């Protein structure tokens, strides 16, 4: 059982959900999701957000049934020792890989926009100890990083006021120009930007009165959805649809237009501040991964964390070049969406296992 | 037979005691005839007040009639004197400024009379935390005077003082002060426990204790607030915190504390809340400015000069055109110069210090720009940063800000703005991890407690602050007021 002192208030579920969801994707998702729905893709985000709401609701249904237990324990109860451990290990490897891809994607932006000839291995040597420093402490520290990683970068939203001056509302008209099917197809792509909610199943026991936190978790998802919708909306009225197709990071383009008397090229500030956005991702994913492994393998979490970070370090170095990064992130997001569908499966499975157990007794 | 043996043993112990005492030349003992009996008197000359002996001891010893020490004890008009034959007690009390009187006939009884010399500095106005308005008293080196200064502000029976002695050599008096029923018992127990567990031979100043009982002794951030203002201590005790008084130290420690508390001057409470809030915000801004400005200069000029608009770039380029060094070297040279000036100014007497300030500030500054060693833009920035770090009301936090600028500079040089971000992240995580007496140090930012923000970066009016800060975990959260029914007698 987790001690009362190590638990965080229910409100923190808001920051944990949002902190896990918003990441480097916020720079690029606008030019990905319009593949089917075009300028109506912002509706797809809302659709995706609603689906995520349902998934969160399902997760809390399961979690409330298994009062104060996490993924590893629930798996063990539903599937038994071996299969449960196997699924938990898969999930923790997924989280580790996700962290590596997030970090690598951020590094790519650094390489393209700020330092073309940065020595990646050296820069990572600065960042990896930072992540270890975060996850080596109590879970409280990870939550704190999520909190600051949500609050502080919010200031970047104000930078979206500047592009409005050069934007045309006609770019986004007429609304509902696409079929429902196209919007749904796009929302499947938009789901990529909402990944990471599954970590809820891992840190749930660390939230005080976790059933009360459901409200805040939904608020967190709502916040993420609204941030995405705002970014998407501004992007689509600033760029025309055939323009945005060829841009990899449209949000950076939005920042470029910011002009202050003492400041040009706001995107440099934006990219550096974005470090605080990806930090919660990295911390939460690696923590979740190491925590799940610890629950299954019962090795000291310290050693698991060090091993995981070393693996992430080498994954980041090995993945080199745009194609490989795209390949890796495609791969991991596909698994991620697949795992999102695992949540309803888990929901059904827990019903079945309950039934079976009741019948057996 | 047995009785004789113990008597002999005691005799030997006393002989040993006096031999030990006589090792030091300031130990004085002499004998006076009193009728048929002989009196011996002894004391440490450096620990006692001669005037007291002349006025209150010797006249009574010589002129009155008595047959044993108990009678003498009643005659001498000094409180807290006592009779004992405990060797270790005698030794300890002699060192603390007692004198002993012994009668040949009364066996092994010794009368101990307190005549300590109490020479302390006069109570002066605070120097480190000076304020224009408000009380002008500051703590001095005597713990009794300091406790008195607080007791007269909080004359309630709930004010409890727990006294201890620490340091195997110095045996320094330490007092843990709190208000019963308001302060969290756990906090008080933690402080007492940590002081009792302290393993030190010497405690010269309260800062020794601060360093020894801090939660993380390797952190550059001070985790206990120190103050020299009795009014601040009184206010903070009423808030439910714990104060640690140390003898021979004019600084009193307060815990648990939070980061924002280091940016609040006590003067904030003497001013109207709007003004006080504005000053606090300026102070917070000054600290951020002081930490970030030179690293940003280095980051931008080394890696991303595109950030600077064309018009401003012209000014910067023309001021840097003569400088042969990269920005990092330029910045480090100037920062080190300022640190040198500060160190020199702090070590020298005030008058010489002022001269150094003028030499450093005007002569070196102008000369180095004219010689083309630094750009005058950076000179302005560094000077402003130095000014900014002086605005922190607590000296120790100022030192921390001085220090953390340097790693930030290096990060900025290597990875530009990203490096600055990474360094800030390190500091932020460190602050998240820090605790003060086990309570989070970064409160009320995280753990996020909006109610405690009333007295953090801004100070809201008193009538909105009806509750004690949650960070203290006070046993009485609500501040009880008299509802306008004040005692008029």
UniProtKB/TrEMBL annotation, chain A:
Q: Which GO terms describe its cellular component?
A: membrane
Q: Which UniProt keywords apply?
A: Germination, Membrane, Transmembrane, Transmembrane helix, Transport
**Topological relation to the membrane, as annotated:** Multi-pass membrane protein
Q: Where are the transmembrane segments?
A: 12-29, 41-63, 83-106, 118-135, 142-163, 183-207, 219-239, 268-287, 299-319, 331-352
Which Gene3D superfamilies is this protein grouped with? Amino acid/polyamine transporter I
One of its Pfam families is Spore_permease
Q: Where does the record place it?
A: Membrane
Gene Ontology annotations of biological process type: spore germination
Which InterPro entries does this chain map to? Spore_GerAB
Name the major location.
Answer: membrane
Instruction: Give start-end ranges for the coiled-coil region(s).
Output: none
Q: Which family does it belong to?
A: Belongs to the amino acid-polyamine-organocation (APC) superfamily. Spore germination protein (SGP) (TC 2.A.3.9) family.
Matching NCBIfam families: 2A0309
- State the protein's name: Germination protein GerB
Which species does this protein come from?
Virgibacillus oceani
From TrEMBL, chain B:
A single Gene Ontology CC annotation of this entry is: plasma membrane
Keywords linked to the UniProt accession? Membrane, Transmembrane, Transmembrane helix
Membrane spanning residue stretches: 281-303, 353-371, 377-396, 408-429
Regarding the membrane, this protein is recorded as: Multi-pass membrane protein
**InterPro entries, A to Z:** Spore_Ger (IPR004995), UPF0353/GerABKA_families (IPR050768)
Give the domain of life.
Bacteria
One biological process term in Gene Ontology: spore germination
Annotated organism of origin: Virgibacillus oceani
Sequence similarity: Belongs to the GerABKA family.
Compartments where located: Cell membrane; Membrane
Protein name, as recorded:
Spore germination protein
């Amino acid at each position: 059982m987790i001690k009362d002192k190590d638990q965080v208030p229910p409100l923190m579920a808001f920051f944990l959900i949002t902190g896990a969801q918003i990441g480097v994707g916020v720079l690029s998702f606008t030019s990905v999701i319009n593949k089917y729905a075009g300028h109506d893709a912002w509706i797809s985000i809302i659709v995706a957000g609603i689906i995520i709401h349902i998934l969160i609701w399902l997760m809390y249904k399961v979690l409330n049934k298994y009062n104060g237990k996490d993924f590893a324990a629930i798996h063990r109860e539903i599937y038994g020792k071996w299969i449960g451990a196997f699924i938990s290990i898969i999930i923790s490897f997924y989280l580790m890989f996700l962290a590596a891809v997030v970090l690598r994607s951020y590094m790519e932006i650094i390489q393209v926009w700020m330092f073309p000839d940065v020595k990646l291995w050296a820069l990572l040597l600065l960042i990896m100890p930072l992540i270890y420093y975060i996850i080596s402490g109590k879970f409280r520290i990870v939550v704190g990083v999520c909190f600051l990683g949500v609050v502080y970068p919010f200031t970047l939203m104000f930078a979206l006021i500047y592009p409005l001056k050069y934007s045309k509302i006609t770019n986004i008209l007429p609304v509902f120009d696409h079929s429902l099917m196209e919007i749904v197809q796009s929302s499947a792509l938009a789901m990529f930007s909402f990944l990471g909610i599954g970590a809820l199943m891992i840190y749930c026991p660390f939230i005080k009165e976790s059933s009360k936190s459901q409200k805040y978790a939904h608020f967190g998802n709502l916040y993420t959805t609204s941030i995405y919708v705002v970014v998407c909306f501004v992007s689509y009225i600033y760029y025309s649809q055939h323009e945005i197709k060829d841009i990899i990071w449209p949000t950076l383009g939005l920042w470029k237009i910011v002009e202050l008397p003492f400041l040009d090229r706001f995107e440099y500030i934006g990219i550096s501040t974005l470090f605080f956005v990806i930090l919660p991702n990295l911390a939460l994913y690696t923590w979740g991964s190491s925590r799940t492994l610890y629950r299954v393998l019962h090795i000291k979490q310290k050693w698991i964390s060090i091993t995981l970070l070393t693996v992430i370090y080498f994954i980041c170095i090995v993945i080199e070049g745009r194609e490989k990064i795209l390949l890796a992130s495609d791969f991991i997001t596909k698994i991620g969406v697949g795992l999102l569908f695992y949540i309803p499966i888990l929901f059904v499975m827990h019903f079945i296992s309950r039934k079976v157990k009741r019948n057996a007794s | 037979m047995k009785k004789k043996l113990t008597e002999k043993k005691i005799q030997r112990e006393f002989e040993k005691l006096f031999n030990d005492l006589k090792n030091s030349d300031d130990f004085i003992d002499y004998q006076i005839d009193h009728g048929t009996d002989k009196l011996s008197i002894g004391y440490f000359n450096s620990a006692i007040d001669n005037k007291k002996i002349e006025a209150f001891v010797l006249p009574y010893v010589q002129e009155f009639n008595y047959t044993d020490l108990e009678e003498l004890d009643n005659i001498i008009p000094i409180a807290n004197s006592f009779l004992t034959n405990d060797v270790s007690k005698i030794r300890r009390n002699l060192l603390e400024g007692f004198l002993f009187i012994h009668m040949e006939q009364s066996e092994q009884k010794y009368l101990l009379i307190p005549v300590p010399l109490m020479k302390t500095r006069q109570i002066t106005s605070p120097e480190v935390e000076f304020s224009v308005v408000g009380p002008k008293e500051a703590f001095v080196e005597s713990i009794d005077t300091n406790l008195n200064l607080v007791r007269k502000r909080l004359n309630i029976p709930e004010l409890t003082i727990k006294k201890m002695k620490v340091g195997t050599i110095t045996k320094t008096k330490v007092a843990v002060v709190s208000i019963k029923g308001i302060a969290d018992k756990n906090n008080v127990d933690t402080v007492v426990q940590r002081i009792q567990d302290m393993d030190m031979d010497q405690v010269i100043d309260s800062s020794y204790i601060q360093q020894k009982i801090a939660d993380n002794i390797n952190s550059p951030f001070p985790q206990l607030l120190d103050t020299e203002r009795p009014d601040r201590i009184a206010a903070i005790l009423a808030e439910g915190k714990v104060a640690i008084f140390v003898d021979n130290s004019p600084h009193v420690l307060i815990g648990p504390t939070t980061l924002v508390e280091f940016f609040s001057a006590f003067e904030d409470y003497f001013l109207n809340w709007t003004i006080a809030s504005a000053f606090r915000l300026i102070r917070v801004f000054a600290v951020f400015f002081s930490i970030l400005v030179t690293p940003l200069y280095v980051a931008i000029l080394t890696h991303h000069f595109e950030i600077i608009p064309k018009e401003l770039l012209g000014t910067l380029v023309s001021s840097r055109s003569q400088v042969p060094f990269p920005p990092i070297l330029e910045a480090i040279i100037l920062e080190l110069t300022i640190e040198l000036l500060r160190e020199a100014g702090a070590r020298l007497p005030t008058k010489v210090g002022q001269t150094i300030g003028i030499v450093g500030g005007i002569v070196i500054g102008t000369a180095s720009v004219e010689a083309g060693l630094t750009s005058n833009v950076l000179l302005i920035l560094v000077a402003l940063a130095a000014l900014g770090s002086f605005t922190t009301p607590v000296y120790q936090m100022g030192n921390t800000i001085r220090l953390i600028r340097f790693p930030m500079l290096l990060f900025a040089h290597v990875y530009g703005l990203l490096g600055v971000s990474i360094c800030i992240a390190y500091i932020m995580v460190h602050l998240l991890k820090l605790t003060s007496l086990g309570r989070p140090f970064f409160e009320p930012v995280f753990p996020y407690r909006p109610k405690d923000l009333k007295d953090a970066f801004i100070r809201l009016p008193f009538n909105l602050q009806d509750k004690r800060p949650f960070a203290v975990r006070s046993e009485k959260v609500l501040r009880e007021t008299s509802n306008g029914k004040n005692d008029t007698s």
